[in-house]
Specification:
Elements (H helix, E strand, L loop, with lengths): L2 E6 L3 E6 H7 L2 H4 L21 H19 L3 H13 L12 H7 L5 H10 L15 H7 L4 H8 L6 H7 L5 H14 L8 H7 E4 L2 E5 L3 H19 L2 H19 L11 H10 L2 H11 L5 E6 L6 H12 L1 H15 L7 E4 L1 H7 L9 E3 L5 E3 H4 L1 H8 L7 E5 L4 H13 L1
Parallel strand pairs: 4-7
Antiparallel strand pairs: 1-2, 3-4, 5-9, 6-9, 7-8
Length: 416
C-alpha cells in the first residue's frame, strides 16, 4: 500500500495510506488548506494562520490514537478516523465567521450539514472539471464503507453512542486537537492540555465513552483550557469586531445579489471578490487588510440586561433583518452611514458553533463500576459548565468618532 509521511507542527510525523490518503488527496480536502482555522483571529494573534487542513489531519491522528487506546475494532476505528478527517469538510471561508449567513441566505446549510451533503455526494463544492477526479462518496464506497455512516457520525448521530461521543462530546478528538493547536499558534498558554493523559483515561463502558476516575484532573484541566480559550481567543472582542465587519460586507454583496456561491470559496477568494465590488464592501475589506478596525462602543454582560432586554437581543440574533434594522437605527441616531454600526452577540453565537456545549455530559467511571455525571464528581466541572463564556453577551462597534455617542444612545435605540 502506498503511504505518505506528513510532518505536523503539533503531533510530529503522521503516516497516511489507503482510504485516508485517498481522501486527503481530494480537491474538497485540499481546499481546506486555504481556510484559516481561526478566521480573522490573526489580526490579534499574528501566528494564528493555521488552516482547517492541518486541524483535520490532527483530529484524524488523535482519533487513530484513541481507537488504539479504547480497543476499537478495525471497522469502528476506520469510521471514527474518516469521520474525524472529514468533520470540517463543509467549512466555508474564514471558518465560523459567516455561520449566521448560512442560515439566512443559504437557508438549507450550516457547515455541518454542508459537510454531510459533500460526503453523500449531494453537492459539489469544487468548480470546474478535474482529470481523473473521484468524489468522496465514491472513494469511501470503494473501501467497503457507507458514506451515510460517515455523514451521520459527522453530525453526531451515529448508531453507536460511544463513537458519536468521540467526535461530538465533552472530551472528543476535535477539541483535543484544536485546543493544543490553537494554543500553539496563538501563543496563548491557556489552551495547553494534558493530551497524553486524556487519551489514557478514556474508556468504553456499557456502550458509552466514559472517563476513568483517576483522569478527572486531566478533564478539569481541559475544561478550564476550553473556557479560557473562548474568552481569550475565540470571542476576543477585536476578533469579533473584524468578523462582524467582514460579515456586513458580505451581506451587502448578497443583498445586491452577488457572491451567492461564497460558501464554496476560500478566504482569499472572498476578499478579492468583495474588494472588486467597490463601495462599502471594498472599504470594509481594506479596513480589515490594513487593520483599521471599528472600536467597541458597548461591551455589555448579562448582569447589565433585564430578562426582557435579553429576549429582545435574542430575537435580533435569530432574525438577521431585525438585527440589520437595529444597526440602521443606531447609525441614524449617531449620524453614521449604514454599515458603520455593528451589533454582535457572544453566547448565542457560541451555542451555534459549539454543539458540544449543549450535549449530554460525559460520565465518570468511579469505584465498583458505578457511573456518575462529571459535574456530580467535580465541583470545578460544574462551575465551568455554568460559567458565562465570554464575559460580554452583546457588543456594539463603530468607527472611533461615533463611539461616545453610541454609548449614550444605544439602550434607548435598541430597546426603545
Amino acid at each position: 500500500m502506498d503511504a505518505k509521511i506528513i510532518h505536523d507542527g503539533i503531533h510530529g510525523s503522521m503516516k497516511l495510506g489507503g482510504l485516508i490518503l485517498d481522501l486527503v488527496k481530494t480537491p474538497e480536502f485540499q481546499r481546506l488548506r486555504s481556510i484559516r482555522q481561526l478566521g480573522l483571529a490573526y489580526l490579534v494573534y499574528p501566528g494564528a494562520n493555521h488552516s482547517r487542513f492541518e486541524h483535520s489531519l490532527g483530529a484524524y491522528y488523535i482519533a487513530k490514537r484513541l481507537s488504539l487506546e479504547v480497543g476499537l475494532d478495525e471497522e469502528e476505528a476506520t469510521i471514527l478516523e474518516v469521520g474525524a478527517l472529514l468533520h470540517d469538510i463543509g467549512h466555508g471561508p474564514f471558518s465560523h465567521t459567516f455561520e449566521q449567513i448560512y442560515r439566512h441566505y443559504v437557508k438549507q446549510y450550516d457547515h455541518m450539514r454542508l459537510g454531510q451533503n459533500i460526503i453523500l455526494g449531494n453537492i459539489d463544492i469544487i468548480d470546474g472539471e478535474l482529470e481523473g477526479r473521484k468524489m468522496i462518496p465514491e472513494i469511501i464506497g470503494e473501501y467497503g464503507y457507507k458514506p451515510r455512516e460517515i455523514a451521520d457520525l459527522v453530525l453526531g448521530r451515529y448508531r453507536k453512542r460511544y463513537l458519536g461521543q468521540m467526535l461530538h462530546g465533552d472530551v472528543d478528538v476535535d477539541q483535543l486537537d484544536y485546543l493544543v493547536r490553537d494554543a500553539h499558534y496563538t501563543g496563548v498558554a491557556h489552551g495547553i492540555i494534558d493530551l497524553e493523559r486524556l487519551l489514557k483515561v478514556l474508556r468504553i463502558h456499557d456502550g458509552e465513552l466514559v472517563v476513568d476516575e483517576k483522569g478527572i484532573e486531566a478533564v478539569e484541566g481541559m475544561m478550564v483550557a476550553r473556557s479560557l480559550m473562548y474568552s481569550r481567543v475565540y470571542f476576543h472582542h477585536t476578533v469579533k469586531i473584524a468578523e462582524g465587519m467582514l460579515t456586513r460586507a458580505l451581506e451587502f454583496a448578497l443583498e445586491a445579489e452577488q457572491l451567492w456561491d461564497f460558501w464554496k470559496m476560500t478566504d482569499c477568494r472572498v476578499i478579492v471578490e468583495l474588494e472588486d465590488l467597490e463601495g462599502y464592501p471594498q472599504e470594509i475589506v481594506r479596513r480589515i487588510k490594513y487593520r483599521n478596525l471599528f472600536k467597541a462602543a458597548v461591551l455589555a454582560n448579562a448582569d447589565e440586561l433585564s430578562n426582557e432586554e435579553k429576549k429582545e437581543l435574542l430575537a435580533a440574533y435569530r432574525n438577521v433583518r431585525k438585527r440589520q434594522e437595529i444597526e440602521r437605527n443606531l447609525a441614524d441616531a449617531v449620524g453614521a452611514r449604514e454599515g458603520e454600526i455593528i451589533l454582535e452577540f457572544s453566547t448565542a453565537d457560541l451555542m451555534l458553533s459549539e454543539p458540544r456545549l449543549k450535549s449530554t455530559e460525559i460520565n465518570v467511571l468511579v469505584h465498583e463500576g458505578e457511573l456518575q455525571p462529571l459535574t456530580k464528581v467535580t465541583p470545578l466541572a460544574n462551575a465551568l459548565k455554568r460559567r458565562q463564556t465570554p464575559r460580554w453577551v452583546v457588543m456594539i462597534a463603530a468607527p472611533p468618532r461615533y463611539v461616545s455617542r453610541v454609548r449614550e444612545v444605544w439602550k434607548r435605540i435598541v430597546f426603545g
